[in-house]
Design goal:
Helix 1 (about 10-25) packs antiparallel against helix 2. By secondary structure, the chain is mainly α. It starts with 8 loop residues before the first helix and ends in a 7-residue tail after the last helix. The radius of gyration is 31 Å and the shape is rod-shaped. It contains six helices and no strands. It has helices at about 10-25, 30-40, 45-55, 70-75, 90-130, 135.
Length: about 140
């Protein structure tokens, strides 16, 4: 038996459109999702997921309905205050970029460690006048 969806596409679309309209008309109301979920008899978490999918364009609603307002017919860009979640490709590209950056930083760190060691050796030689301390003769001094 084929998996039956719990909610129809029409219910999903109408619920999302209602939330978007109410958010536009009542920006200070923080319980819109819960109220619309009760109105359409859907779960609030389901409605939140539909809204996320609508915002990032991953859910294709039928935007040809005549009763849908013009500003909700086409997927819109996420609002300025919300960040759009990157897709898998973007995440993999970002991971690769960061791994390359880590490799460069690790090499820079090794180079800087060598330079600091050389400078410390030169400073030690300059301050002791070239005379080795007993620790340096015993092998506890700077590495060559």
């Amino acid at each position: 038996m084929v998996f039956d969806r719990k909610y129809s596409d029409e219910v999903r679309q109408r619920a999302v459109e209602r939330v978007l309209l109410r958010r536009r008309d009542e920006p200070e109301n923080r319980s819109i999702v819960r109220e619309v979920a009760e109105e359409f008899e859907v779960g609030p978490q389901s409605l939140r997921k539909w809204l996320v999918r609508y915002d990032d364009g991953s859910y294709d609603y039928d935007h040809d309905s005549a009763d849908a307002p013009a500003d909700v017919r086409e997927p819109r860009a996420p609002s300025a205050g919300r960040r759009q979640r990157p897709g898998r490709r973007e995440l993999l590209a970002r991971v690769e970029e960061l791994e390359q950056r880590i490799a460069v930083l690790q090499e820079d760190n090794r180079s800087l460690t060598r330079v600091v060691s050389l400078l410390a050796d030169q400073l030690r030689v300059a301050t002791t006048g070239g005379v080795q301390s007993p620790d340096a003769a015993a092998g506890h001094g700077p590495r060559a």
